[in-house]
Amino acid sequence: MSKIAVLTDSCASIPETLLKELKIYMVAYYIHRGQEVLRDLVTIQREEFLRWLETAKALPTTASPGPGDYLQAYDKLVKEQGAKEILSIHMTSTGSGAYQAAKIAQSMAQEQMPDVRIEVIDTRNVSMCTGWMVIEAARAALAGVSLEPILARIKKMLPLTRMIQTADTLKYLYMGGRIGLAKSMLGTLLHIKPLIGMTDGVIVPLGQARSRSRAYQMMADMIVAAVGPLGKIKIAYTHAGASEEVEKIKALVEKQLICVETIVSELSPALAVHTGPGTAGLCYFPVED
Question: Is there a single domain that holds both residue 150 and residue 222?
Answer without folding.
Answer: no
